[in-house]
Amino acid sequence: MWPRIGPRDSIVSMKPSKDISRLIEIMAALREPKTGCPWDIEQNFSTIAPYTIEEAYEVADAISRGNPDDLREELGDLLLQVVYHARMAEEAGEFAFGDVVEAITTKMIRRHPHVFGDETARGAGMAKGMWEKIKAEEKAEKREARLARGLDPEDNGKGFLDSVPVAMPALTRALKLQEKAARVGFDWSEAAPILDKIEEEIGELREAMAKGDTASIKDEFGDTLFALVNLGRHLKLDSEAALSGTNDKFRSRFHYVERALDASGGTLETATLDEMEKLWQDAKKAK
User: Fold this and answer.
1) pTM listed for this prediction
2) Under CATH, which architecture does the 170-237 domain have?
3) Structurally, what CATH architecture does the domain formed by 8-110 represent?
């Protein structure tokens, strides 16, 4: 159970610790109705969710920059999000932080019988299809548990693709939807025909643009992006990672233009498009 924070001076005297229990105590203190932080007390799952997503991105950013100090800090921020959600869940009488830890340890042990199982399981290794079999068993158990609580057994998800989270970044969600559909054979057999599909979608986008139909333009643009993600998947490329690399490349080249203008006494605001384009081409040659 979460600790109940007592007198005010016990909160003030808190010291940092490497023990997870201290972080749990701090969150309990922040959420304490009478003595806690007004901002923290007002939060709920929905208002905190965007911060949880943001912290996960900041962890990935620290990894991409190869900065272990930043990674340590960002992992702490992400851990705080887990503790935050668990605290609010316990306040609502749903579950506590210990239940979160128990759930993930149970899942990891169960999904790795070739590591944590008996001698027979370890000797056999991870048999083909075992991972999906275990996940299917877990899904069935979750369904039974929801039925026992008088809840919708499918947690409001009726379709085969409904387990793909809506809150995922759109490119990643497109990839996950396509991967899951492919498991039941709904997929292109190879990459080449997808290029034709992309050209078809671009043609439809051109038609929508010519008509000036905003809704159709948005729809066809989305179809084109979806088809591009599908092509990337067949080429063994992660669209999110590929676009991230292009973003970094664009930023680097634009910074080259900015520095070059500054060195010549110019600015981004006063330079002409032709001047910036010339420097852009120089930046491409420099890399």
Assistant:
1) 0.63
2) Orthogonal Bundle (1.10)
3) Orthogonal Bundle (1.10)
